[in-house]
Amino acid sequence: MPHTESLPALIYVIEDDLALGQLLLGSLQEYGFHGQVFRDGSSALRRLQVEAPDLCIVDLGLPDMDGIELVQTLTQRCNCGVLILTGRGHPADRVLGLELGGDDYVVKPFETRELVARIRSILRRRGSGGSPVAAGPRRRLASFLDWELDCAANVLRSADGTEHLLGTAEVQVLRSFVERPHQILTRQQLTGDRDLSPLDRSIDVRISRLRRRLEEDPQNPRIIKTVYGAGYMFAAKVEWR
């Protein structure tokens, strides 16, 4: 089942150009969405068996399968929106993509605000809501312990009202935690990068920064726990409003 209205919309970006995929993911996060990037159709379909997104953004030029084939498979396996984002501008590709279940078709290069507007339109039509920004405070505020995370503004508030403006990378990780508390999350799940190298230490830097903000003793964390050999777990009750 796609995410409920109490959580930010989850979007899968299926794009073989990793740099473009990460750029698009960052833009979506700035507009309040949660997302993951996949460089091929097979990895996205495997993830689909574990967690269904609200919407998939699909590039037609994938390395392991034709994007049109993936669009058809997605519409058969998952009740999610599909936005085709591709360099193919031929009318035949557009018609075929829409006939096989695509909700919209955008040709590269694209303008981010227009793309976000199209995404919100698809989600509204499907009853999934728009971004947390458009859906009001119930979807944007996550409270845990003495903290409150404003997902729309990238702001973390302490009990005394002090506001901490978080970077996009920190918000991505913290949002992943508060959406799935008491679950072990892998490094790939926390970064949204399915092809993350085991030697990439960027996630450790983000975790360290969050622990310094949230933990009384960052060296002995009680909120963001390390599960050795598996990933990390957020050990706090979360309420959305």
Structural commentary:
- InterPro entries: CheY-like_superfamily, OmpR/PhoB-type_DNA-bd, Sig_transdc_resp-reg_C-effctor, Sig_transdc_resp-reg_receiver, WalR-like, WH-like_DNA-bd_sf.
- The modification 4-aspartylphosphate is found at residue 59.
- This is Response regulator transcription factor.
- Keywords: DNA-binding, Phosphoprotein, Transcription, Transcription regulation, Two-component regulatory system.
- The chain has helices spanning 18-30, 41-48, 67-77, 91-99, 112-125, 132-135, 137-140, 168-179, 187-191, 202-214; strands spanning 10-14, 34-38, 55-58, 81-86, 104-107, 141-144, 147-150, 155-157, 163-165, 184-185, 224-227, 231-234, 239-240.
- The relative contact order is 0.13.
- The chain is α/β, with parallel strands linked by helices and 241 residues long.
- Helix 8 crosses helix 10.
- Helices cover 39% and strands 21% of the residues.
- It folds into two domains: 10-133, Response regulator (Rossmann fold, 3-Layer(aba) Sandwich), CATH 3.40.50.2300; 136-240, Winged helix-like DNA-binding domain superfamily/Winged helix DNA-binding domain (Arc Repressor Mutant, subunit A), CATH 1.10.10.10.
- It contains ten helices and 13 strands.
- It is elongated, with a radius of gyration of 18 Å.
